[in-house]
Design goal:
Number of strands: 8
Catalytic activity: D-ribulose 5-phosphate = D-xylulose 5-phosphate
Structural class: alpha/beta
Largest sheet: 8 strands, parallel
CATH architecture: Alpha-Beta Barrel
Protein name: Ribulose-phosphate 3-epimerase
Helix content: 25-40%
GO biological process, one term: pentose catabolic process
CATH superfamily: Aldolase class I
Radius of gyration: 16 Å
Function: Catalyzes the reversible epimerization of D-ribulose 5-phosphate to D-xylulose 5-phosphate.
CATH topology: TIM Barrel
Strand content: 15-25%
Number of domains: 1
Order of helices and strands: EHEHEHEHEEHEHEHH
Family: Belongs to the ribulose-phosphate 3-epimerase family.
Strand order of the largest sheet: 1-8-7-6-5-4-3-2
Number of helices: 8
Length: 217
């Protein structure tokens, strides 16, 4: 149907066997590593910081797609770049000076993404849509893996696709949360370009085959 990009979420990996799981993603048809950074302030959970990300980067053979679920992300952009980030997505809801943060990300040589929570309307991205490379649309409330997919996401994807086309922008639509064999095809049909999958990949009996199944949507 489409050349969809697959970004397994390392948050769902086995942290006692992180190198093994990173090498599994390397050997799969996945395109990116999705790295969720949580600070316990912006979202009610804490994930991992720079040492773990640097350890992942040491073994990763594919780009690191970093999703910052943190307050004051502008303080850490250079350090995330230095830790291996290829893409950096910051939350619309966490940035007071969004344009400044976008250009800060671009100035360090990374692709710039905006992440939005499920309740954040698409039209709020109108003023930045031509300045970014990626929109990371949350299809669950951020903070924890394994949550129930929010059905309204399909319409939001269609609305975002329309906004991108109306502005002649070159922006990828990434969906994060609740992606599986049922939601994946519908998301791609609605206009999604990148699917983030965590539990669905890492709890599968054969994660490599599961990634390939998503890739072939």
């Amino acid at each position: 149907m489409a050349n969809v990009l697959i970004a397994p979420s390392v948050l769902s990996a086995d942290f006692a066997n992180l190198e093994r799981d990173v090498k599994m993603i390397n050997s799969s048809k996945a395109d990116w590593f999705h790295i969720d950074i949580m600070d316990g302030v912006f979202v009610p959970n804490i994930s991992f910081g720079f040492p773990v990300m640097q350890a992942i980067n040491k073994h990763a053979a594919k780009p690191l797609d970093v999703h910052l679920m943190i307050v004051n992300p502008e303080k850490y952009i250079q350090t995330f770049k230095d830790s291996g980030a290829a893409n950096i997505s910051v939350h619309y809801e966490a940035c007071t000076h969004l344009h400044r943060t976008i250009y800060q990300i671009k100035d360090v040589g990374c692709k710039a993404g905006i992440a939005i929570n499920p309740h954040t309307p698409i039209h709020l991205l109108k003023d930045v849509i031509k300045d970014i490379d990626l929109v990371c649309m949350m299809s669950v409330n951020p903070g924890f893996g394994g949550q129930k997919f929010i059905e309204h996401t399909y319409q939001k994807v269609r609305d975002l696709k329309q906004l991108i086309q109306e502005n002649n922008a070159n922006v990828l639509i990434e969906i994060d949360g609740g992606v599986n064999e049922v939601t994946g095809p519908k998301l791609v049909q609605a206009g999604a370009d990148v699917l983030v999958a965590g539990n669905y990949v890492f709890s599968a009996k054969d994660p490599v085959a599961t990634i390939e199944q998503l890739k072939n949507i």
